[in-house]
């Protein structure tokens, strides 16, 4: 894993805007009419995307999650829903939109409600109901339910993802690349009609996803675990739990993830935490100080998290009290998916320096808050990545002078 030994390295959180051509091809595939030459199209698009990332000044690049189907310009769920096409034991439930209400067994009888039942949504019901409010949610999708023993069936899909990125790295000379994969805790947020307990379901998902994790690492790529449930679940528990109960509830999800990661090299693994990327008020988010220790329990070499949006930017102060474990890296978001305003490079540099002064410049990689694909217009997304790279250059000059 690249470290900032002589300059601030730069990366992003995963999802990047799909081209119109790729969106239309994905839409055709979902309608049962896969276009001829789709495999070649996807390979060529990943290569072009990697080249563009390098041109903008990024050093640790990704495939933009292009292998995770997105059939509309706005899509907040592709990072997660892709796993349903790669898993047996699921059946589509037309009554499900996101994760509907269900009772989980730890700790006690914690009630995890679905996306449409968030406490943030209840507090700002009028704004959420207004289609002109700017709270971009996209169209609800039908989600599957677990109806039998689950097993991984995505071998061909992940092999294609790996091959496309590896080929793009070789063609462009990019020094390092990563592929994202969903966590067991986040993947399991669908209705369960088969497993007896929440723990049994989580560990079943851990065994399923481990196969994908190993495929990425065995190919020599970095693996990024996408796990917003660690922070985001808090807003979906009614009534609001105590921090202690929530941490206990979340610890099981971390344990299941670590089970899936057992024996895999930590220095090839990144862990991404966020509070959900929809453009809402987020006033009921749990604070970083309450979950940072839980995040650091994940067996990963680097941790990425939101640090650029207005609800969480102030939380850089957490690192005044929390010691980053030896050898670990943080990749804080220094540009945000939550606004169309493009951050000034000087602001980006300031954000980078705040973290560098607390955990060491060599332990900081500049990143984005969350995926930019499906959240903001492509032209703005790439302007933000350019600002990120320019800000990293400014911070490098300041930190190594």
Automatic annotation (TrEMBL):
SUPFAM superfamilies noted in UniProt: UROD/MetE-like
Q: Where is the Cobalamin-independent methionine synthase MetE C-terminal/archaeal domain?
A: 199-386
Give one Pfam hit by family name: Meth_synt_2
Supply the PANTHER family for this chain: METHIONINE SYNTHASE, SYNTHASE, VITAMIN-B12 INDEPENDENT, PUTATIVE (AFU_ORTHOLOGUE AFUA_3G12060)-RELATED
Its recorded name reads Cobalamin-independent methionine synthase II family protein
**From which organism does this entry originate?**
Georgenia deserti
């Amino acid at each position: 894993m690249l470290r900032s030994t002589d300059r601030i390295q730069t990366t992003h959180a995963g999802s990047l805007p799909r081209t119109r051509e790729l969106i239309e091809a994905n839409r055709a595939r979902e309608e049962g009419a896969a276009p001829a030459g789709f495999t070649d199209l996807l390979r060529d698009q990943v290569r072009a995307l990697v080249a563009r990332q390098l041109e903008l000044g990024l050093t640790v690049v990704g495939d933009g999650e292009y292998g995770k189907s997105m059939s509309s310009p706005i899509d907040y769920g592709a990072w997660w829903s892709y796993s349903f096409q790669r898993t047996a034991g699921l059946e589509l439930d037309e009554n499900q939109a996101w994760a509907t209400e269900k009772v989980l067994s730890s700790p006690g009888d914690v009630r995890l409600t679905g996306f449409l039942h968030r406490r943030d949504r209840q507090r700002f019901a009028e704004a959420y109901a207004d289609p002109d409010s700017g709270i971009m949610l996209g169209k609800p999708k039908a989600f599957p339910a677990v109806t039998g023993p689950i097993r991984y069936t995505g071998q061909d899909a992940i092999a294609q993802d790996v091959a496309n990125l590896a080929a793009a790295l070789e063609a462009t000379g990019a020094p390092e690349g990563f592929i994202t994969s969903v966590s067991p805790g986040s993947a399991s947020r669908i209705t369960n009609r088969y497993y007896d307990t929440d723990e049994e379901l989580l560990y079943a998902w851990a065994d399923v996803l481990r196969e994908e994790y190993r495929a990425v690492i065995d190919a020599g790529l970095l693996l990024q675990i996408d796990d917003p449930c660690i922070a985001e679940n808090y807003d979906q528990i009614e009534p609001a739990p105590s921090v202690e109960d929530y941490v206990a509830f979340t610890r099981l999800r971390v344990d299941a993830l670590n089970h899936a990661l057992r024996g895999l090299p930590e220095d090839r693994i990144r862990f991404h935490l966020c509070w959900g990327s929809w453009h809402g008020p987020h006033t009921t988010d749990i604070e970083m100080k309450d979950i940072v220790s839980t995040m650091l329990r994940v067996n990963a070499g680097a941790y990425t998290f939101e640090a650029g949006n207005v609800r969480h930017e102030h939380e850089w102060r957490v690192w005044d009290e929390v010691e980053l474990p030896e050898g670990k890296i943080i990749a804080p978001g220094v540009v945000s998916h939550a606004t169309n305003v493009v951050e000034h490079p000087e602001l980006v540099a300031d954000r980078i320096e705040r973290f560098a002064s607390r955990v060491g410049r060599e332990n900081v990689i500049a990143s984005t808050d969350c995926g930019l694909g499906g959240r903001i217009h492509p032209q703005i997304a790439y302007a933000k990545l350019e600002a990120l790279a320019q800000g990293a250059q400014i911070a490098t000059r300041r930190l190594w002078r």
